[in-house]
Amino acid sequence: MKNYSCLSLVKRGQKREREREKVTKSYYKVRN
Fold first, then answer.
1. Which of 14, 15, 26, 30 has a CA that sits 20 to 30 A from residue 8's CA?
2. Overall number of domains in the chain
């Protein structure tokens, strides 16, 4: 159970990173 929660947390973190990456890329596109 503990391992499972840790795994889901990691996955959620990766998802958030990807979203942030997408946002920053589009932001740079708008600026350039």
1. 26
2. 1
Q: How far apart are the first and last CA of the chain?
A: 47
Cα separation, 11 vs 14, whole angstroms? 5
Query: From residue 27, how far is each of 5, 6, 8, 24, 30 by CA, in Å?
Result: 33, 31, 29, 5, 5
Structure-block tokens of residue 24: 């920053």
Range of the domain at 29: 1-32
How many Å apart are CA 9 and CA 13, to the nearest integer?
6
